[in-house]
Structure formats: structure tokens, C-alpha cells
Amino acid sequence: MSGILLDVRNIGKNFDAIAALSEVSVQVEAGERIGIIGPNGAGKTTFFNCVLGVLTPDTGTVYLASEDISQFPVHERARRGIGRTFQRIELFSGSTVRDHLLIAERIRRGTGNLWRDLTGRGKPRIEEIEACDHVLDLLGLGELANRPIEQLSLGQGRLVEVGRALMTQPKVLLLDEPSSGLDHQETADLAETLLEVQASSNFSIILVEHDVELVASFTDRCYVLDFGRLIASGATQEVLTNPVVREAYLGENIS
Amino acid sequence: MLFASSVAEDFLRGILQGLPPGAVYGLIAVGFVLAYKTSGVFNLAFGAQAYISAALFFHARNEWQWNVVVAFTFAVFLVAPAIGLILERLIFRHLPPGSALAKLVIAIGLSVALPHLFELLIGFEPVGGRTPEGLLPNGGGVFYDPFGVYPLSRNELTALVVAVIATALLTALFRFSAIGLQMRAAVESPRMTELNGIRADRVAAFSWALSSTFAGLAGVLMAPRFNTLAAPDYFNLIIVAITAAAFGRLMSLPRALVGGFGLGILIAQVDTFLPRFSANNSWVKAIEDNVTPAMPFIALFLLVAFWPPLRANKDQVDPLSGVDPPPQLPVAVVRTRFMTNLTHSVGVGFLSVVGFVVMTRADKSWVFLVTQAAIISLILLSITVLTGLGGMISLSQGSFAAIGAFTVFQLADRTGMSTVLAAVIGALVAAAVSGLLAIPLVRLGGMWVPIATLAFASFFDAVVVKLPFVGGGDKALIEGTRIPRPVIGPWNLTNDKTFLVFVVLILIVVSAGVIAIRSGTLGRSLAALRGSEVASQSIGVSPVRPRVIAFVISGFIAGLGGALLGMQQENVNYAGNFTPYATLFWLVLVVTLGSRTVEGAIQGGVGFSLFDRIIFRGDLFGWILRDPDRVPGFFPVSAKWRFVLFGLSTIGFAKHPEGLVESGKRKSHERMERRRARREARKSLEGASS
Amino acid sequence: MNPILTLESVSANYGPFNAIFDVSFSVNPGEAVALLGANGVGKTSVARVASGLITPSSGKTIVDGVDITGARPHRFVQAGVAHAVEGRSVFASLTVEENLRLSFQRVFGRSGVPTAIEKAFSEFPALERRRDQLAGKLSGGEQRMLSLARVLVEAPKLLIADELSLGLAPVIVKKIYDQLARLRANGTALLIVEQQVGHALKLCERAIILEHGRIVWAGPSNQATERLAMRFTEK
């Protein structure tokens, strides 16, 4: 019981008649990096949505630090420590880079006091700005802080998403295909940055990814989904050499 | 036995009685769904288009003495599609697909502008007492009574038959023809349609011509139902039609028709079987008398708020929207601090001069107009909060303002309370109603919030206002809904200039509040939710709370504004100030001028109140000529032009979705930048030569 | 013989990241060309200019010997250029069958549609099971399959394939490249825009590398790997 931080038990979810997920259980220990791989439509993003509460699973329970969070709405789960990035990046158009982090910082501190807003004292304070800039510097976005989000490249946009999620000081960070649309160099840079940040603030990471190289180098353990079922799990190196996995995921014929 | 058979007979009569109005509802509902399906526009101007064809047909028959066939062909098959084509070409073609809210606002603008424009061009005046005729000779005079319980007129039968046949034809068009598929594809993504080798612009033009022809047809067929042809009646019918269309989830034509019939029959049955609880208790009686015609509004609100299948209807995002260049940034972000301070000082200076002139030189009527401008600006700020910051559209701001005004009236009338205190209470009541209304709505997103609030506004208009403890009932009919001006300490607000100062002070406080909210947590949460709901939730922003708070604040501001408007006029004057159709125009003003900024709302208020006097009545011209008597003869211009002008300014909005004020700022900013660049280039040239 | 597609010193000024400058190249019939480069160098903009989605600010687009610079995309399609766009390239609000019908109606006429649809389904049996489902409900891989199914039956002169492998599992990417190879064997020229260069270089004989909106290298694809590797070592 000791180290398990996120415990997802027997999640099942059907769309119409199709089972998107059935009986999927995943455990994550504090500080661990795990991977989830599988072909498209295997249910990886559905799994994330069930963990964060964007979708309500038909069966199963989600525990975060031994607390059952299955009934909580998305923003409550987020406040309890689940952070997330998105496959297709989801940014707030019309805001600057720092604005993205600032709102997350505000919500975390819980100072949504309307009276402060009304009396004009709701403007960002120095310590809030400093907290944001600290994370921006970590991610190498320091110089872009005042840039409007529309002027960023895809790779930078992904970093902003990571920064925004980090501001909530997550216990678990869910990364949904962070390498999608990035080239090799950008992917490597992103992985390096993530490792550095994780080392300094010690949270767990769940990574959904198609880039096998990244999964192999980045994660300790990994789970394989196919047609909504777990077909393998274990230490990443072992899983990636498993012949069943190689056929289902990499399309290699084992004859 | 006798009893049972009479109930059955009543029931059958109810059905037959419900069929003719049901056919009309179904006809517009089908047209409405058609427009939505083929052009992606939630076309609230559909009623206006129907009205124009109907009025044109009427006018051609009566004034120009045209033959029926000629008049019908001209009004329905020539003018109606032409209007559709013009709208497509001038406005809707320029909008990116998926911008459902922008399209909705434009449609609202058009629903106000088109009827007025038509009336001005043709010289058409709605005339009471002359019932519009139908297509067939003596259509209102020949009756058929197949079951011996309820006679149907020839006009009604025509509408019935045409509704059924037209729906069948359109359904077949979608099922079997190539163009049906192409229209649906072009709504989702014109560019991807082009990549399939299809001319998307022609498809869109055809869509508009088709649905507009249908609007014309529906308009002419339903005209005999009205005693007088008037645009607001057609607008109200649109709300009924939306209810019928909602039964078909806005997608199915046959279901929309069935929904229309169902609604017609429902109303007739309620009318027949509604128990009479009390003939004495005035407020129960007020409900009993008015609830029947309000059934569609209740049904619509309940459907939108609580029927899950409707919510599944989300707009598809155009996968090729990335082809458009990214939106430009607000000028306030890019310009230098010096320029910002300069603009602000110039603005404050200008307003001070105006204030000084008004306080020292202006006569009573001018003080009245300026006060009105300030109050309307205040009300429009409620839209800035909701639409500009929250990205939500409410069409019941008129009702919230009316709640504020009526509360002051009732409290002052019953308790003699100070109207200043009463105004605060009124604003709080409006805020509470607004917040309660918002709770089931804010997660629906997109166009459902405006539709549900429009249903609420219509219900308020049809039932709530008639309640004696709101609108004053019979007593108010005789005495009016009077509101006295208050006296605060040494200030007697019955003095118009003192009252103006009072109003301006409130406007300044509220404006400062709105600006503070925009940069505070609430404003940031709303901006985040507008940008991406799911991402905001993932950092802990509740998708409900900030939006409900925005509704509460907006309701408070609207209620306060309504109370002040009542104080100014010393009367609530509901019919003149707050009806749903009249207050649609508020939204058009704010959104076209700029919903994000306080300036947008203030310019809207000023435009709304002063444009008529300054421009149309020729006062400006007279002032320039230094002689009011020498103003040319074509002044005063009809006040209808105001509606046409602002309504059509939505065309500008199509090209500058950030609002006219913002786009004006951008232009001047770009001009300044160019000038500076030239200057620097010259300087460096001189530096090089010397 | 004319090249299918020629871009003549094309420039397009499009947002802060997608601008391209003075881009010239051509694709000959039956040829496969890979367009490579890092994120945001303007690959997608080149693809969009080549299919008429973007009108270039200067330069010419010549399709099959005819200059149709500035024409609308449907003219490009009629001239034989098909474009499988980046991301979702099907109509989410239409069913799988309607997606196919929409395009086949134009190419094969009303009577040819059923045969064409059957042909598409015989190439992609997985789609037949979903024929009445909304295309928006398909998985990412199935959506790519659907857009390829259409192209495969119509056999255009040139297919512009923009990031077809994006976000897809290796097993599906493999299948898609198998289909592209078949398309090519039937005589369709390919312009393949890719971030993941491995598959693209195997399929194409020529490669073009973009940097900051300009062509910095063009040559046989077996030398492209070296050139691409250089960029990383420079950093």
C-alpha cells in the first residue's frame, strides 16, 4: 500500500456497443514514470479521460493517494493533483504565455475572491509572477513570457502546456502524445526538460506515446492496450521485446 | 357516457384546431432546420425574411393590384431567393465555418434591420384591420368540416398541404440528390469540399437561395393568420419554430414538421382542458389567461435545459480552419505604454468637455438624452461582462433590466421605500434570477444559451409581466407603473442635471468594476474557459462557477440599469424599453462596436440614444449651418434608419469580428506605426548622408 | 512530357510560422518526392499552395502544363491533384459511405458510384463494417484510411499527402505506406510531406529539405539522411 499514488481499478467504458476500455487496471507509484502504448483506437486517450473525469467510466474506481476520486468532476481532480497535457494542444487563444501559467497559479492558491476582483486588487502579485517565471525558465520559455500564444510554434506550445500543468503542482502528470508533431531533436529536448523538472519536484508521469524510442528511454514500466484491453505490462524493456506486443503494435510478423 | 363522448369530441376538436397553427409552426421549423443544415446559421432572421415576402405579396396585391400568380411568383420565387443570395454574398461568405456565435449575432442584427429596410424602401406601413389574404380566392371564407366538430378554412388547408408536400420534397432532396450531400459537406468545411472537386461557393449560394425561398413561401402562407402584418409577430413565431425544430434536434426535417404539428395540437389541448382554478385571485387568473400562448417558450426552455440529446449537437470544427491566418492581437497589447496613456487622456479630456457643455449649456431635452445614453451604456456593460468576458450570449438582458425596474416600482408603490435602496434590491433580484437561470444553461455552450435565454425572455414577456405583483396588473393599466426620483441628503434627483451626475457616477464605478474583473481571477478564468474548456478544467477551473458568477454580475448591472431607466422616465414603460424584440438591438450594438471593452459599451449607449437626435433629426446639420431653420427638407430622416444602420453594421462585424472600435484602433495604430517607420527611415538616411 | 506539378519561385506570407520564400520544384508523372524539414519550416504551407488552398503572394503554380495560380482548390482537383490534408481529412458529420459518395459522384457520375464504393471497401474491409457510422467517430487511423480509400479508387495524377503518419501507431503507419506504394505502382505521383522521415525516404526517390521557409537541399533520397543528420550535429 505504501508507495502507490494513483490506483486505477477495473475501468470499463463503452461507446454505443463498442467496448473502448474493459477491465483496465493501472498502478503508479510516487515518482515513477510509466508508459501506455497501443494502436490507435486502443483506448489510450479514453483511459486518460476516465482518470481525469472528462468521461465517466461505466465501471471501475480511481484512487489518488488512497482517496476515491471517481465521483469528482474534472476540476476537483485537477485540484487534488492530476495534471494533463493534450494530444491536440489546447491553449487559451488571446492570452500570453505567462497568462496561461498565472491562471493555474491563481486557482492553485485558491484566491478566486470576487471582492478582490471587484476592487481591483485581483491583479497578479509579484510572488505569483515570480512563481510563473520560475517554471518558464525551467522550460526555457523565459524569453517568451509576454508573447501571445498565437505566435508560438507547436513545440513551444507543448512546453506551455507542460508549464501550465506544472503550475498546479501535480502529483501525477498525464502526457498525451507529447512528441506528436515534433521532430527528433525537439522530442529529445522535451524529454530532457521533463526529466530535469521531475527530478526537482518529484511527481509521477504517465506517458501515452507512439514514439517507441521515447517510451523506451523515458519510462520505467509500461502497459500495452489493444482493443481496450491490457495485453501486456511490466518493465519497459521486457514489454517492448515481447513478441505479442511487437506484432500488435509494431506490425512485425513473427514467423 | 355523454360526458365521455363530449371529452372525446373536445379532444378531437383540439386536434383539428391545432392542425392549422401546427402547419405554420412546422413550415417555419422546417425552413429553419433547412437553413441550419445547409448554411450552419442559426437563422433568427428567418422570420424577417418570411415577413418581407408576405408584406411584399400583400403590398403587390393591394397597392399595385397585381395578379395573384404574378405577385406570388415575384415575392416568393424572385425576391426571397435574391435576398438569400445577397446575404450569402455580402455577409456569410466572409465568415469562417464554425463561428456559430458570430453568425447568430449577425442573424439577430439582420432580423432587426431587414424589416425596417424593406419598409423604408417600399414605403410599407403595417396597417391594422386589413387581414392579409391567402393564395386561393376567398381563402378565409370557405370552410370544410369533415368531422363536424371544427371547420378548417381554405387558407388553412392550403398551408397544411403545402407544409406536408414541401417537407417530403426536401427530405427526398437530401436523401437522393448530389446537391443535398454537397450542402451538408460545405457547412462543415467549404475548403475540404473544394478538395473534393466541388465548388463550395456555388453550393453555399444554392443553400441560401433554397432556404430563403422557403422562408418566403412560409411567410406568404401564414400571413392570413395575422390581423396585421408586423415584423415582431414573425420574430415571435421563429421562437415557436425553434421549439418545433428542437424536437428534430435541429437536423431532421420530418421531425421538425411533426414537432410543429405537435406544438399546435398541444396548445389547442391546453387551451381546451386547462382547469380554471380561480376567477377571483388576480395572479392565478393572469397565469391562466396567458400561459397557453407561452407554452412553446416553456417547452423550449425545458428542452434546451434538460433534454440531453440536444446537447450532443455540437458544431463540427473545420479541420482546415488552420489555413486562415491567426487572429490579430488587441491593439492595447501591442501599442506602447505612451500611446495607451495618450489615448486615455484624450478620451477623458473629450468626455470632460462634453460633460461641461452639457452641464452648463444644454437644454432639458439634451440633458435627458445624455442621461439616457449613460444609462443605456450601463445596461450594455452587462453584455460586456457576459459576452465580452464570458463568451456567452444572453438575449434576456431586457428581462433582467425590467426586473430591476419593476422591483423599484413595486417597492416604491407598496412601501414608499427610497428608490435608491429599491434600485439596489431590484438589481439583486435581477442578479438572483440571472444566476438561477444560468445554472442549468452554462454548460450547454454555443448557441443554446442565447436560445434558452430568448425563451425565458419570451416567457417573461408573455406571462410574468402580466402578473399583478410584477407589472402591476389592472391598476397599472390605469395609473401607469410610476417610479419617483429619490432625494439623497442634500441632492434632489428630481433635478435632471443632478440625476445625470448621479447616473454618471454609477456608470464610472461599474465601468471600473468591469475593468477590474477583466484582469482579476474571474476574468482570467472566463478567458481560459473561452479558450479551451477541457484545458481550463484540467488546471482546476470549474466550468460552471465563473460563468454563473458572470451571469449574476451581468444580471445585477442590467437590473441596476433598468431601475435607473425607470427612474429617469419616472415610469417603467416596459413596452417601450424592455420587450425581447426591442432589446435584441442592445446585443447587436455591443457586439458590433466591440464587446471586449468598456468603450464599446459606452459608444453603443451613446449611439443608441443620440444618433437619432444628432444625425437623423438634422440637429448636427443645423448646428453646422448655425441656423436650425435652414436644415434641408429631407430632415428629419425616419428613425427606422437607425435600426437599419446598426443592423447592417453587422456586415462590418463579419469582416472585423473583434468589433468596429477595436478595428478602428488597429487601423490608426497601423497608420502611426507606418508614419514612425517612415520617419526613422528618413532619419537614418539623413544620418548616412551627413 | 510535362511535370504534373511545378512551383515557380513561390512565396506565401502566412502567419508568423508558415511563411515560405522563393520555393521552386516540380514533380514528374509517376514520381515520388518527399518534402522534409523540422516543425514550422513551412512544409504544410508548400502543400497548401500546391493544392490551391493558399494563394501565393508571388510565383506560379503550374499543374499539368497549365498555369492555374490563384485558382480555387476545386480547379486543382479537376486537374488531377488530390490533397490528403494534415489531421482530420474527412467530413465528421457525414457517414463513411457519404464521405465516399460525395467525391465519387463527381468523378464517376451517379451510376458509377456503387461500383466505386464497393471497390473502396474491398481495398479497406475495415471501413465496410463502419459504412453507416459517422466519420467523426472513427479512430485516427481509420480516418486516414478513409481519405486514402477515396484517393485509391479515383487514382489522381498526383497525391499530396501531408503528415499521414502523425499520431498513428507504427503498425498503422506501416499499412498506410503499403497503400501509398500501391497507389504509386498504379501510376499516381506522390508528394509526401513528413516529419518522421524513415518511411518517406524508403518510398520516394527524391527529397527536398526546407529550412525557415526556403529549400536548402534537393537530391536523391538516399543522400537526404546525411543532410538531415547534419542539421542535428550543427546544433
Count of helices of chain B?
30
- Strand order in space, largest sheet of chain B: 1-2
CATH architecture of the domain at 5-18 and 28-89 and 157-234 in chain C: 3-Layer(aba) Sandwich
- SS content category of chain C: alpha/beta
* CATH fold-level label of the domain at 5-18 and 28-89 and 157-234 in chain C: Rossmann fold
- Based on CA atoms alone, the radius of gyration of chain C comes out at 17 Å
Shape descriptor of chain C: globular
Distance between the amino and carboxyl termini of chain B: 114 Å
Shape of chain B: globular
| Average residue pLDDT of chain B | 86
**CATH fold field value of the domain at 362-616 in chain B:** ABC transporter involved in vitamin B12 uptake, BtuC
List segments of chain B where confidence is low: pLDDT < 50 over at least 5 consecutive residues.
Answer: none
The major beta sheet of chain C can be summarized as: 6 strands, mixed
Question: Mind telling me which CATH architecture of the domain at 362-616 in chain B this is?
Answer: Orthogonal Bundle
- H and E string of chain C: EEEHEEHEHHHEHEHEEH
Report the β-strand fraction of chain C as a percent range: 15-25%
Nearest-integer average pLDDT of chain C: 88
What would you say this structure looks like, in words?
The complex is a heterotrimer of chains A (255), B (690) and C (235). With 255 residues, chain A is of the alpha/beta class. Chain A has helices at residues 44-52, 74-80, 97-109, 114-118, 126-138, 154-167, 184-201, 212-218, 236-241, 243-250; strands spanning 4-15, 18-29, 33-37, 59-64, 67-68, 82-84, 172-176, 204-208, 221-226, 229-235. In chain A, the strands form 2 sheets. Chain A has a 6-stranded mixed beta sheet with strand order 6-7-8-3-9-10, sandwiched between helices. In chain A, helix 3 (97-109) packs across helix 5 and helix 3 (97-109) packs parallel to helix 6 (154-167). The longest helix of chain A has 18 residues, at 184-201. Chain A is globular, with a radius of gyration of 19 Å. In chain A, 49% of the residues are buried. Chain B is mainly alpha-helical and 690 residues long. Among the domains of chain B are: 24-131 and 153-267, no CATH class; 362-616, ABC transporter involved in vitamin B12 uptake, BtuC (Orthogonal Bundle). Helices cover 73% and strands 1% of the residues of chain B. In chain B, the strands form 2 sheets. A two-stranded antiparallel sheet of chain B has the order 1-2. The termini of chain B are far apart. The model of chain B has no long low-confidence stretch (mean pLDDT 86). By secondary structure, chain C is an alpha/beta fold. Chain C has a domain at 5-18 and 28-89 and 157-234: Rossmann fold (3-Layer(aba) Sandwich). In chain C, 42% of the residues lie in helices and 24% in strands. Chain C has helices spanning 43-50, 73-78, 96-123, 125-128, 140-154, 170-185, 197-203, 221-234; strands at 5-12, 20-27, 32-36, 58-63, 66-67, 81-84, 158-162, 189-194, 206-211, 214-220. Chain C has a 6-stranded mixed beta sheet, with helices on both faces. In chain C, helix 6 links the parallel strand 7 and strand 8. In chain C, helix 5 runs parallel beside helix 6 (170-185). Chain C is globular, with a radius of gyration of 17 Å. Chains A and B meet through helix 2, strand 6, helix 3, helix 4 and helix 6 of A and helix 21, helix 22 and helix 23 of B.
